[in-house]
Amino acid sequence: MSLRRALALAACGLAGGSVLFSAVAVGKQPARGGDAEPRSGGSASAVPPAAAAPPGLLLLPPAGASCPAAPGWIERPAGTGGYWDSNWDRREPLALINLKKKNEETGEEELASRLNHCKAKATRHIFLIRHSQYNLHGLSDKDRTLTPLGREQAELTGQRLASLGLKFDQIIYSSMTRATETTEIISKHLPGVKKISTDLLREGAPIEPDPPVSHWKPEAVQYYEDGARIEAAFRNFIHRADAKQEEDSYEIFVCHANVIRYIVCRALQFPPEGWLRMSLNNGSITHLVIRPNGRVALRMLGDTGFMPPEKITRT
Question: Which CB contacts under 8 angstroms, 24+ apart, belong to 45-50?
């Protein structure tokens, strides 16, 4: 296989969200509601054409194989993959100006000035908090309140956030009961920080996971309804700072495991179908950084190191 074809196939897999070569072992687990998690492990390595494939190793697709189509609400440039889209949030300065507009006096394009006017200057720090442990047996959302342990977890998360010594700008939280209660407890440790509730961050099925799991199979309509809403939450909340923002911001989002994992995949431009491969504990902290140039970094994923081991759960 030529190097050019190997690279093209790799790009195809990245663009379509599929695994090109991976040794995968999936075990069954009992259902965990919206936080279903398969156990998997694997490694990626090139396989010589003449070598026999070890058990469980998926070979590269044949020449000419097409990439799987992405859901309509996820924008991916056709025929490309494996690169960073600098205009992922549609806030790249060059994309925000009208290049045909001329200065009436000189008749020349003042491109540099207009680009500077649209350019972000500040960094956004996004802290994604998963709600604490809650009553899984509640028949409706209002009955799914935090357990005593869940309330302890929220206290610990609030203390951890306060200990960072950051000036938080706002707390945006899901309108579901378990997220609302977690927010109320956390906010006691961050007095004066405004709180905003939203339905966009409610739990749901963001996109059909790949690989699939046998113990958690929502109806197709749920992906259609929840997926569009959760994607809307991503576009509304996850982007580089506004050009008018002068100082770095620190924002807290209290929501749910499925929502957070999907947001992380989208922000890092990883295949969003892989969201279920990640695991998040109750009350955990995930930290995304969005630079003025649109680059995104993941500083923490599901951190609960500030909790005693006996307080950590993943229900």
Answer: 45/21, 46/6, 46/21, 47/21, 49/1
User: Could you tell me if 119 and 92 are in contact, meaning their C-beta atoms sit under 8 angstroms apart?
Assistant: no
pLDDT of residue 315: 87
Ramachandran bin of 90, using left for φ above 0, alpha for ψ from -120 to 50, beta for the remaining angles: left
Among 229, 216, 206, 214, which Cα is nearest to 275's?
206
Q: Quote helix, strand, coil % in the chain, to nearest 5.
A: 30, 15, 55
State whether residue 8 is helix, strand or coil: helix
State the Cα–Cα distance between residues 120 and 211, nearest whole angstrom. 37
Burial level of 220, CB count in 10 A (0-12/13-18/19+)? exposed
pTM for this entry: 0.74
Note the helical H segments in the chain. 3-16, 93-96, 111-118, 148-163, 177-187, 220-237, 257-267
Looking only at the bridges linking them, the beta strands covering 194-198 and 296-303 are unpaired
Judged against a pLDDT cut of 70, whether residue 23 lies above it is answered with: no
pLDDT tens digits for range 209-254:
999 998 889 999 999 999 999 999 999 999 999 999 999 999 999 9
Closest residue by Cα to residue 6 from 68, 52, 69, 60: 60
Q: Residues, the chain, total?
A: 315
d(CA 190, CA 66) in angstroms, rounded, equals 51
**Phi and psi of 39, rounded to 5°?**
-95, 125
Q: What is the DSSP string of 111-168?
A: HHHHHHHH---S-EEEEEEE---B-TT-SSGGG-PBPHHHHHHHHHHHHHHHHTT---
Spatial distance between the Cα atoms of 246 and 111, rounded to a whole number of angstroms: 22
8 A C-beta contact, residue 33 and residue 256: no
| CA Rg value for the chain | 22
